[in-house]
Amino acid sequence: MKKGDILSRLIELGEKDVKYIKDMILSFIIAGKDTSATTLSWFLYLLCKHPSIQEKVAKEVREATNLKENSSVDELAAGLTEEALGKMQYLLAALTETLRLYPAVPVDGKLCFSDDTLPDGFSVRKGDAVAYQPYATAG
């Protein structure tokens, strides 16, 4: 299957239920918007609190994109290629640390559809609500 957006992929797979397609697209938009906005807000906050980290990130971005001190935003955008992003290891580390400290989804809840036993041996019944912290389970 060629690369494409989720709508194109659903149509290519033969999905014909318009309500299902609409619900799927809306779920992706809503989930992506809030988690991305929250992560970026915390990232910018942390950069402001730690100017030395901010300068290291800025330097790495300038070097990876071959920008000069007085480059425009358009020149920056043009320099953000996959190759340039692959060189931004410090930026990746800073973003990863932001997510570690301030996870985009601190608690996730699920509803049990049937009786089950969790990996630690705890039993849950149909209809029980279970919440977990992805942060605490990350390895």
- Uncertain segments are none
Taking all Cα atoms into account, the compactness measure Rg is 21 Å
| General shape | flat
CA-CA gap between termini: 32 Å
Q: Strand share of the residues? A: 5-15%
Order of strands in the sheet with most strands? 1-4
Tally of extended strands?
A: 4
Largest sheet: 2 strands, antiparallel
The total tally of domains equals: 2
Let me know the average pLDDT. Answer: 88
Helix coverage percent: 55-70%
Counted by DSSP, the helix tally is 7
> What structural class should be given to the helix and strand makeup?
mainly alpha
H and E string? HHHHHHEEEEH
Compact summary:
The chain is mostly helical. It is built from seven helices and four strands.
